[in-house]
Each structure stands twice: as C-alpha cells, then as structure tokens.
Amino acid sequence: MTTSTQYAVDRIVLIPDDIDLSRSPLAGAIEAETYVLGAFNPGLTRLDNGNLLMMVRIAEALREPIYDGQVHAIRWAQDGYHLDAWPLELADTADPRKFMLRGGGWKIMALTSLSWLLPVEMSSDGLEVIAIHYDRAIAPQRDYQCYGVEDARITKVGGRYLMTTCSVSPERHSTTLYSSADALDWTLEGIVLDHQNKDMLIFEGTIDGEYWAQTRPLGDLYFAYPPESEWRAGPSINLARSPDALHWKPHDLPGIRPHAGTVATARIGGGTPPVLTSDGWLTLWHGVEPKEIVGIYRTYWSLLDRDDPSKVVRTDHKPLLEANPALTRPIEDQMYLRDVVFTTGIADHGDSYVVASGEADLACRITHIPKSRFG
Fold first, then answer.
1. CA 275, 277, 282 angle in degrees (round to 5)?
2. How does pLDDT run across 19-33, given as a tens digit for each residue?
3. Could you tell me if residue 331 is inside a domain?
4. Residue 111 to residues 83, 98, 99, Cα–Cα distance (Å)
C-alpha cells in the first residue's frame, strides 16, 4: 500500500530503538526481560519555547510472554509491578499485542505489554529530537490505570494544556484527564469519561464559553439505520460539552458518522484535537476498513461549523494519509502489523500543519501537510 498523496516532508522520527529502557518506570521492577513493542501514537503540542512536544506511547512488552504453559501480563499495583499468569489453554494469542481469555461468557482481554507516556521534545518543525524527558514520564498511579496509560491527545485552551489519555484496568476502560501549565509537568485530574472511550479529543478553543470534545463510546451492540440511509451503524464520533473540562454532557446531535457507501470507514474514531481555521474546526480522524485481525487504518479530515460542530461543512472521502511501507523499511525486522497509520496530533506551522501519527503501532511519523490541502 502507498500513500494516496505524496508530501514533501513525511518521515519516521522516533523508533523503538531510540528508547532507553534502563530509564523506564518499569526498570528493575519485574524479573523478566522487556522490550519496546512500540513507540507510537504521539500526542502533539507546541511549547512556549517554540519547540514541539510529542507525548509518545511506549508499549513495553514481555520478551517472552509465554512460558511454563502460561501466558503472562504486566500489572501495576500500589506496591509495585507484578506478572500475572493464565493457563495457555484458556487464551487466544493470535494478536501479539494482547490475548483473549475464554470461558467468561463475554470478552475478557489482557495485554502482553504495559503502556506509559514519554515526553519527547522536538524541533519546531517536528523533525529533530531535542530531548527525551525520561524524568517526566507518565506511568500508572491509580488502580484504574493498572494495565497502562495509552494514546495521549493534547490540547491548549486559554494558556492551559489539557491531555486526555485512555486508562486501562479490570475496573473500567476509561478516559482520564491531565492538566499542565507547561506541557512537561502534568497533574492527573482523574476520570472524565467512565466508559470505554478510546478517542476523546478536546477542541483547541471554547464555543460560547464552553469546552467541547469529540468522543467515541464503544459497545458490542449498535442499532441499524434504515436500509436507505447514507449512514452505517457502528462506532462513530460523538460530541460532548463541559463548563470546566472535567464534567461532560453528551451533545444531543451526532457528530461524524461512517458512510454506508464505503467499507473504508466502516469503523471511525477521532484523531487530532479540532483546531480552529477561518473555515471552521479542522479535525483529522481515522477510518478502519475490515481486514484480518486489525484492519486497515487510514486518516481522513472534516471541517466542522465553528458555532455548531455537529454540522460538517466540508470533508473528503479520499484518505489524507495511508500507511507507507517505505518509511518503515529500515525497521522491517520489528514490524508486527501492516496497513496502520493512526494520526494523533496536529500543530500549526505557517503554511502547513505538522501532523503526528503512529505508524504500524511501532513508530512516530511526522508529516507536513499544506493548509491548501483542506481548501
């Protein structure tokens, strides 16, 4: 697969080999060898010094999760990190990132890795690593994060940085909020969405004094649209409003929905926090075409009305970004997924946007996309 549009600046800027696990929050905490399964899905924001900051998800995995007839997972607790073991005959290990446990009457999953967040300071164009801030890494610190902290999305509103993350535990699969004055030192504000929601994105600005966000609640049941509808039933991008960024009320009207006329966006979810342009709120989002275990992930875009984000002003059914095997060829030996680009950050850069993505759940990709592309 090749990208539908070639961009002059489009490259991998951070790979697993760049991460020093001797400085990991897990270093020395468990008696098992770990490695970086992926350094990917970076949140992105611009610091006060003009540099960019990527908040990179580090999936630290067990080198050998299966041994002694059992499959193992890393779990954080108040007294430290632990290795949990399940009989191999109870587990489906087809996906290298996780395993499913049989016999519970519903889907039960455990992970072969534990994710934590690493701030990586980049040059103003996002192409050069300036500093890796291991001392400011974000690791689990509450029971509801015991299986990891994933997929940061960063928004700056009124001089304050807000970062949503997905926190994973047996208790819940929730969205948590962090806040910061400088995007380097973060305070955990707690859970803001108490249900499975992988893609909460806070708008970079308020509307009539309210915070807005895109959400994507998940479930195993979706009701059908009428047979002639232009929409396809399934996960979609919803909206929510808040007076303080902590307490959120779902918006009554739907947001972006998958179209019935294509399977390329059969499942969709938010990508980058919406940024305000002269034409409305620009949002980049992902569409997933069913294929094998994971599917094909591509990036699309829409412009939303600046006063009513439930209205789509303009969109494009052709992908903005697709997975690019040429970019990951130097790390081919580490590849375990194909056909996945997952866009997670955007920053203004004059006549273009710096767009940050996770490539193949493995590395960080930076693409400069001209603003004219959204005209």
1. 45
2. 999 999 999 999 999
3. yes
4. 11, 4, 6
